[in-house]
What we know:
Blueprint: E1 9-12, H1 15-26, E2 29-36, E3 39-47, E4 51-57, H2 65-69, E5 77-81, H3 85-94, E6 98-105, E7 111-116, E8 122-126
Parallel strand pairs: 1-4, 5-8
Antiparallel strand pairs: 2-3, 3-4, 6-7, 7-8
Amino acid sequence: MSEQNVFPALRYQDAHAAIEWLERAFGFERHAVYEDDGVVHHAKLKAGDGAMVMLGSVKSPEHNGYNAVAPPPGSASIYVVVSDTDAHFARAQAAGAEILMELHDTDYGSRDYMARDPEGNVWSFGTYNPWTAPAA
Length: 136
């Protein structure tokens, strides 16, 4: 896989709970969490082999320029490549994830499913890897 150079950045009302949930339901692992006074300023979570997402607590628009223009929490849609979609789906389902699209085979050869996290972000997981798929 090529080195990742795009990193989704998510905001959560309760970033601590989101981190714990993403670990339990989707198998993310903490790489780093920077916090102070109960606020997660910046967290990096690993997803499988070489992928990472960043997240933090929602702060007021006055906090800094980013918070003044950032999209609202729960408005992201992210696709994550996984090697065993069936096992990943079973883990998410066992953790109580809201399943939006059941596990299925696509017409382009991927095995996918879709779920929503507790704050509304939509996560798709599957075997389709854009780095290895043929170019159009």
